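Q: My labmate handed me this sequence with no annotations at all. I'd like to see what the chain might look like in three dimensions before we decide whether it's worth expressing. Could you predict it?
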Amino acid sequence: MPLFLLTFCSSAAFADSPDYLHRVGTIARAVTEANETLVYLDAVTVDKIRAADGYFVIHEPWDIQSRIVVLTQPPTAVRMGQMVDIEGTVDTLVGGQRVIFNASVIGYFNEQDYLLLHPPFMKGFLQPTPWSYKSELTDIAGLGFSPMDGFPPEPDPDPLPPPTFYASIADLLNDNPPDDTIVQLDCHPVESVESVYFVMGDDGGQDTLAVYYTDPQSRRVNVVTGTMATDGNDRVLNVDSGPGFDPQGYIGHVTYVTDETNTMGADFC
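A: Here is what I predict for the chain of 269 residues:
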């Protein structure tokens, strides 16, 4: 059975939304093209990376629901949330899902040849925003799947799930979610700080959790999100580093309580 079907959508799909959402260079326009058409998408956002399965997912910066799977091994420089351009061939899986395969991934750089995750501009509404410093991310870009390859698992275009909220570290440890589960905790004290992590505690409780973060501080945590991991016999939380951390996976965040947050929510945190 061939992997790809020779079907495509009608441009009548444009009728109910603004023209800029379907200009050349958008995902919405690309999915209306015939199979095996070469397309170029400017200033799209990477929001899911599955390096082990050989694909990643992009969406339009102005519409997270306008998204498509890129069946190309993601370059190692690609990160979640990064803005890139994509040049590749659009086609259709046997299940009807539109995809782009054998893609080149073009990154945005500054004058000092530093790769920018978030260039200082928005995607142009009528045409691509000019930028002089773009280059293909070539370490493994361009490698991937073709219509003759087969793709055993159907790629999943859906966004990553939102973090699972836990009111306390005790609740988190009792639930013992698997590694790579995305979690969130709010309003916790910091017990100690090391060079690459801090130890977070529970108010009125004995449980603690090591949180791996590149900016550990001795201040109360307002919100922390990250992925669960196991370090020996201990469970830990990887925010942007840590044991087994995948830089192409979910990147969490930490906000600390400051005078400003206290004035807004002192009773809350």
